[in-house]
From TrEMBL:
One of its GO terms (molecular function) is enzyme regulator activity. It is found in: Cell envelope; Secreted. Keywords: Glycoprotein, Secreted, Signal. It comes from Lactuca sativa. Coiled coil: none annotated. The keyword Transit peptide does not apply. It comes from the Eukaryota. Residues 22-182, 229-364 form the DUF642 domain. GO terms for cellular component: extracellular region; plant-type cell wall. This is DUF642 domain-containing protein. InterPro entries: DGR2-like_dom (IPR006946), Pectin_Meth_Modulator (IPR052437). Pfam families: DUF642. Residues 1-19 form the signal peptide.
Length: 396
């Protein structure tokens, strides 16, 4: 029994470490070299031969942009616009076994382009196209996150690249990018007796300082089934969710939570392995983000293929919350990964006509008898045996 307790203590002690990677000139506030100093134009076309953007390489048609008429940017400083074949890239040295998550801001070059602005963002192993979505924020710019996930072991340099999309549906609408941040999230996962990993959504992409817009997280089109490269560690995204911070929104617990904004569907999915059979309880908090989101929320909690519960809440948009709990018998085979999702299908809007929805936070999955309950699909017996061996060593 003492041994079991000690293992639990060890499990609780293993925790996540963040590392903020500092990209050079992440907000493009250091101007390109060799600019003609008397140029007052809001858009300055750069020449790959004579201009250099500190920290960045660029190619194709790239303009240096100053916020102003038609163009709004976080902090209203500078950004770059990517024209035909336009791309920027930067490499950085990874610092140990981290997962790297990118935060970036996308802005249209004029209000008319709000529905025709997109960029292609690439990490070392994959890429994803992001579209500006007018209906998801109150600013004429939006912040997104993308996992710079690497198929190879993280050695050598990590690269990130942002380029204009060749099939831009409006050739006058080239995208503007700004404020590019990278967060490193430490690899060895962490343990508790909670079957959900990253259960309070405290681990995820960086927020832009002073931004009240949150960070939009989208379903990954290329690897929809895997959570490895999700920007929100251990949760895959359905539709679009807004990652929100307690500085600017009502967050039920801790500093961060997710708001299911896109509807039809908008959700988060965790993959859980059950080591044994027995009675399981899932607790979570559902709320509104204090963003004037008025309406009837309806959230479905689904476990595996067959178990579904629904939860309703009338929101008046002032930051209310309700704790919920369900109990069921887990009779899954211990080799099976069970998908557990929180999903909303309905559309709700704030007083500014921005899409909004229920906030989910503080998820807990526990066997009712309290004993060790879970093995995440990535946390194998190997790790457990290692901890057991460590524990025995300490005792001998
Ligand atoms: C900058 O000033 C020079 C000399 O006064 C002028 O020839 C040039 O056209 C100006 N360039 C811009 C971009 O205004
Ligand atoms: C400025 O441009 C000249 C060519 O016009 C080039 O030789 C020089 O390296 C450039 N300087 C910088 C700092 O980019
Ligand atoms: C820049 O683009 C040109 C033409 O598309 C290509 O030949 C060249 O390799 C590119 N350079 C870099 C650094 O990507
Ligand atoms: C702002 O956008 C309008 C409409 O697209 C355009 O007519 C105007 O020239 C733009 N202003 C600037 C400074 O680009
Ligand atoms: C955030 O706001 C504070 C106070 O207004 C200001 O001092 C700071 O420079 C801002 N930071 C950024 C990145 O804009
Ligand atoms: C951008 O990519 C090119 C080609 O992949 C590479 O040679 C260059 O070093 C990269 N630039 C930066 C600043 O990382
Ligand atoms: C393309 O964008 C321009 C504004 O830059 C707008 O006037 C025009 O309607 C757009 N065309 C399409 C097909 O969306
Ligand atoms: C963008 O699309 C939405 C709905 O699809 C529409 O209400 C809005 O007017 C469009 N905006 C522009 C600038 O075309
Ligand atoms: C996005 O960029 C990557 C890397 O250059 C490329 O492999 C991919 O095909 C691009 N995707 C689209 C949709 O253009
Ligand atoms: C959610 O949407 C469905 C149709 O998609 C509708 O029947 C239902 O009434 C809506 N529920 C709420 C709470 O608005
Ligand atoms: C919600 O669950 C109840 C039973 O708990 C069921 O009667 C009802 O139809 C469900 N509502 C929806 C919208 O699925
Ligand atoms: C909601 O926001 C208002 C101000 O915008 C603030 O006074 C209030 O405390 C917030 N409520 C919650 C529950 O966070």
């Amino acid at each position: 029994m003492a041994l079991v307790n000690l293992i639990f203590i060890l499990l609780f002690l293993v925790s996540l470490v963040y590392s903020k990677v500092t990209l050079e000139n992440s907000g493009f506030e250091s101007p390109p070299t060799n600019l003609t100093t008397n140029s007052t134009s809001q858009f300055i076309l750069l020449d790959t031969k004579t201009n250099r953007i500190p920290g960045w390489s660029f190619n194709g048609t790239v303009w240096y942009v100053t916020a102003g008429e038609n163009v709004s940017l976080p902090g209203n400083g500078h950004g770059v616009q990517l024209g035909p074949n336009g791309m920027i890239n930067q490499t950085f040295k990874p610092d140990g076994n981290y997962d790297y998550v990118l935060t970036f801001t996308l802005a249209p070059s004029s209000p008319d382009c709000a529905n025709s602005t997109s960029v292609n963002v690439s990490g070392p192993s994959a890429s994803e196209v992001f579209f500006f979505r007018e209906s998801l924020g109150t600013e004429m710019w939006q912040t997104y996150a993308y996992s710079l996930w690497s198929q190879e072991n993280k050695k050598g340099l990590m690269s990130l690249q942002i380029q204009s999309t060749s099939n831009s549906n409006n050739i006058t609408c080239w995208p503007i990018v700004d404020t590019i941040l990278v967060t490193g999230i430490h690899g060895p996962r962490w343990y508790s007796d909670n079957g959900f990993v990253n259960s309070g959504f405290e681990v995820g992409p960086a927020f832009i300082e002073n931004s009240s817009q949150g960070v939009l997280l989208e379903a990954d089109s290329s690897y929809p089934d895997s959570s490895v490269q999700s920007p929100l560690q251990y949760w895959t995204i359905l539709g679009i969710v807004k990652y929100i911070d307690s500085k600017h929104y009502a967050v039920p617990r801790g500093g961060r939570a997710v708001e299911l904004v896109s509807g039809n569907p908008s959700g988060i999915v965790s993959s859980v392995g059950f080591l044994k059979h027995g009675q399981v309880t899932i607790d979570f908090i559902m709320g509104d983000a204090n963003d004037s989101c008025v309406g009837d929320f309806l959230v479905f909690l689904q476990v595996g293929d067959t178990m579904i519960w629904n939860f309703t809440m009338r929101s008046i948009g002032v930051g209310s919350r309700e704790a919920h709990s369900v109990t069921f018998m887990a009779e899954f085979s211990n080799t099976e990964s069970v998908l557990i999702s929180f999903t909303s299908f309905n559309e709700t809007r704030t007083s500014n006509n921005v899409l909004c929805g229920p906030v989910i936070d503080s998820t807990v999955l526990r066997f009712s008898d309290g004993l060790h309950s879970k093995a995440h699909k990535d946390i194998g017996l190997v790790t457990f045996s290692f901890l057991l061996a460590m524990t025995l060593l300490i005792f001998v």
